[in-house]
Every structure is written in structure tokens, then in C-alpha cells.
Amino acid sequence: MNYAVTDPKMQHKVERWLRDGNNCYTFEDIMQGIKDGHFQTHLFGDTWVLTSIHDWPQRRSVHIDLVVGSMEESLEIEPQICEWARSVGADLITGGGRPGWDPIKSNFSGSWRLTGYTYAKDL
Questions:
Q1: Distance from C-alpha of 81 to C-alpha of 83, rounded to nearest angstrom
Q2: How far apart are CA 33 and CA 30, in angstroms?
Q3: Sign of torsion over alpha carbons 54, 15, 101, 50
Q4: Pick the residue with more confidence: 67 or 118?
Q5: DSSP E strand stretches across 9-72
């Protein structure tokens, strides 16, 4: 298939992720964030990974904000994203996701660990 980020099928998958993520962004917001440099985009086959770089007082991290595509391709691209993160000076990589990711985290390179939960409440 190998569709582009702007392909309607990809947009549909991203819009589902946006709904599940409390509607903090629209697809257009993400495209603008990429253009502005707030987000970085990584394509691998039919899989799209969106990242953001964060500077903290003691370290620099890369956060995986979005993974849309196949689990197999996610496993394949993960070492490349870690290497890219090192190349921009990050020494930590984080990501959030559904509990369905937990059983397969050992399939990824290195030692991913659960560091907490995120709770949300609409006000």
C-alpha cells in the first residue's frame, strides 16, 4: 500500500488516534506542527511515526507521539528512530499507548519499561 501521510486512509487512522487522545489536536494541527518543527515525521512502509523533542533541565528526550500502521513495521522502524533520537542529542525516548502495547514491548530493541500511567479528566 505504502501511502503518504496525507492519504485519506492515513488521515482516517490518525483522526481515530486523535479522538482516542482526547481531541487535543486536529489533523491540520499536526501538519502545521510538522511544518513549524514541533513534530518530526518518520515514514516506513505503511507506518507513520510522529515524534517531538523535549529539553529538560537534566536531559533531552524524544517522545513518540503517534504510531499509525502495522506492528511489524513498528518493530522494524524503532531502532532507526532510536538512532535518530541519539543523533539529535536525546538520551531518553518515551512513548504512550494503549495497554495492548505492553505485552509486545520485549519485541522492541533495548529495554522499554512502564514508567507510569496517564489519567485524564475533562473540565
A1: 5
A2: 5
A3: negative
A4: 67
A5: 40-44, 47-55, 60-68
- Residues 83/34, Cβ–Cβ less than 8 Å: no
Quote the pTM value: 0.82
Cα–Cα nearest to 26, from 9, 41, 11, 8: 11
What is the DSSP secondary structure assignment for residue 45, as one 8-state letter? T
Q: At 11, which amino acid appears?
A: Q
Residues 90-117: pLDDT tens digits? 999 998 776 666 656 666 666 777 777 7
- Between 13 and 116, the more confident residue is 13
Q: Where do the domains of the chain lie, and which CATH numbers do they carry?
A: 8-107 (3.40.630.30)
